[in-house]
Amino acid sequence: MLDYELFGNSIVAWLASVGLFLFVALVLAIGRRVVRKRLLKGVSERSSPALQIASQVVAHTGVWFLLLIALYVGSRVLVPMRWTEMIPRIATIALVLQLGLWATAALATFLTLRRARQLAADPSTVAAMDLVGFVLRLVVWAAVLLVLLDNLGVNVTTLIAGLGVGGIAVALAAQNVLGDLFSSLSIVLDKPFVVGDFIVVGDFMGSVEYVGLKTTRLRSLSGEQVVFSNTDLLGSRIRNYGRMFERRVVTSIGVTYQTPAAKLRRIPEIIRGIVEGQSKVRFDRAHFRGFGDSALTFEIVYYVLTPEYNYYMDVQQSINIAIFEQLAAEGVEFAYPTQTVFVSGATS
After folding, report:
1. Which domains does the chain have, with CATH numbers?
2. Rounded to whole angstroms, what are the CA distances from 169 to 92, 175, 182?
3. CB 249 within 8 A of CB 304
4. What is the mean pLDDT of residues 43-54?
5. Global pTM?
6. CA distance linking residue 313 with residue 298, whole number of Å
7. Residue 64 and residue 59: Cα distance in Å, rounded?
8. What is the pLDDT of residues 209-254, one digit of tens each?
9. Closest C-alpha to 281, from 311, 251, 320, 252
10. H or E segment at 18?
11. How many Cβ atoms are within 10 Å of 27's Cβ, its own excluded?
């Protein structure tokens, strides 16, 4: 009975093959379960990136892959037959697919960890990481597909040449989309602005809310959302108020021509004292600039040492009120456009 042959192999060989298959499958299944349980038990958000990536790689190991490994090992004790000769090729295909799954899982875990770390520091890099992740996954599965086709006997060289020509045609057809994608990458790497910056582009202004793969979105002062394509945005002149470290204020006042020269000499010192009395403000200069049509003009220059707009307006208001009060206390009158008519040669 044991000497009976089935498909060129004895019953003993078949029993040995099945037994080896079951043994290897059982060992691999238990090993996968133990390793996965220990890794998942020891993994947390504070674990090292390598440990988190390893846990995801083990989690994405397919049962079908383990069974094919066991089938391959079990078939080695049989006399080669037409169908058993296909098992190594099937095992190779399974290995390539599993490598693709492992690479994708490791890549996804790595990018997730990087995204969580970068989100707090610079939210605009998230879009670039999504783009990089998409490209890398595309490269991985393109390589997997080429290896699979090569194992199936397809002429990969001819296929690559055909894909090259087709890729050029696709690139020409989608050049606007690709332009926006590369512009997005340029925005993230060069950082002309980041999420949260207040920018002015042409007639539009607002805070940057989102930098995407194709578009960038602003929230305007009036509340509506303004959407720009990344290519158009980089082709425009951008004024970024978010990179401002201080604000320069230039303002003028005019006093009447009837003001005595002694008081004119005191006005710059009065203004200096007012400006230097404000916090986060640096006085630059105050000068009697010239003679206007209806006023003696003084020019005042100072810096507000913070980019915050509301604080800038508060300081400017405080300085203006203080100038008005102190000059009024000195008996200096502010000028405004007036006309005086002199009549000569009048007869009584």
Report:
1. 8-121 (no CATH), 152-242 (2.30.30.60), 247-329 (3.30.70.100)
2. 34, 10, 18
3. yes
4. 66
5. 0.51
6. 21
7. 13
8. 888 878 899 999 889 999 998 888 888 899 998 888 899 999 999 9
9. 311
10. helix 11-42
11. 12
